[in-house]
Amino acid sequence: DAKTTQPPSMDCAEGRAANLPCNHSTISGNEYVYWYRQIHSQGPQYIIHGLKNNETNEMASLIITEDRKSSTLILPHATLRDTAVYYCIVREDNAGNMLTFGGGTRLMVKP
Amino acid sequence: NAGVTQTPKFQVLKTGQSMTLQCAQDMNHEYMSWYRQDPGMGLRLIHYSVGAGITDQGEVPNGYNVSRSTTEDFPLRLLSAAPSQTSVYFCASRETGAHEQYFGPGTRLTVT
Fold first, then answer.
1. What is the per-residue pLDDT across B91-111, written as a single tens digit (0 to 9) for each?
2. What's the CA gap between B61 and B78, in Å, rounded?
3. Which DSSP state fits B9?
4. Chain A residues with CB-CB distance to B under 8 A?
5. Which of B43, B44, B56 sits opposite A44 (nearest CB)?
6. Do B99 and A87 make contact, defined as CB atoms within 8 angstroms?
7. Which of B21, B103, B107 to mutate to test the interface with A (most CBs of A within 10 A)?
8. How far is CA B31 from CA A90, B2, B11, B23, B73, in A?
9. What CA–CA distance (Å, rounded) separates B75 from B83?
10. For B6-60, what is each residue's pLDDT tens digit?
11. What is the mean pLDDT of each run of 10 residues along chain A (111 residues)?
12. What is the rounded distance in angstroms from the CA atom of residue B35 to the CA atom of residue A93?
């Protein structure tokens, strides 16, 4: 699986958009980009995934660059409850269950 | 649906003791897996299963055994606990063909 690089920490003001970057310059054509988050001590929670196109759901938007070497997770109106560690994961969608979690980005949403 | 459940929530073991961490899901998911998370680190895959009767090793399988006799249950056995196995253990499941994995609330294990 391709390796991902994320900043270790970020701050965001409550109510503002949080933009979390991820670099995955060695991604291959059949690998998806997944985002999960982990709120303190809880199990990770799926947020969104994409292959080539930008994606949006009720939680967030995922912007993938045209060359697929990087992506940005956008939380449009961050709340205090969005404070968490956010993991960007690149993975083929094949049989098997492995998700490789790196260090992630610790997002602190401040009032 | 209860989703993915794990028991116990907390456990303290002495070195050399054995125990089983329980994981169950009621979503009829074929894929199940066990991860461990050490302080300040990401999750690492221990074992996984793609269906009843089928298991395989992940990144850090040593010291752990698994079996999958039913679709619902995927227990993780520590054969002889060591302090290096002090960690938080998460179980996860996924539906065939789906992208989203569902994680349980975790078991916090301390080995003294």
1. 999 998 888 999 999 999 999
2. 10
3. S
4. 32, 34, 36, 41-46, 49, 87, 93, 95-104
5. B43
6. no
7. B103
8. 18, 17, 26, 13, 11
9. 20
10. 999 999 999 999 999 999 999 999 999 999 999 888 899 999 999 999 999 998 9
11. 87 97 91 93 93 94 96 97 95 68 92 95
12. 19
- How many other C-beta atoms are found inside a 10 Å radius of the C-beta of residue B42? 18
User: Measured between alpha carbons, how far is B26 from B24 in angstroms, rounded to an integer?
Assistant: 7
Q: Tokens standing for B77?
A: 């056995």
Sort A6 into a burial class: Cβ within 10 Å, 0-12 / 13-18 / 19+. buried
Residue A72 in tokens: 């940005």
- Going through chain A in order, the beta strands assigned E by DSSP cover 9-13, 18-23, 31-38, 45-50, 55-56, 61-64, 70-75, 84-92, 105-110
Is the alpha carbon torsion for A92, B46, A106, A36 positive or negative?
Answer: positive
Put the strands of the sheet holding A84-92 in their side by side order.
Answer: A9-13, A105-110, A84-92, A31-38, A45-50
Q: For residue B104, how many other CB atoms are within 10 A of its CB?
A: 25
Cα A31 to Cα A85: distance, rounded to the nearest angstrom: 22
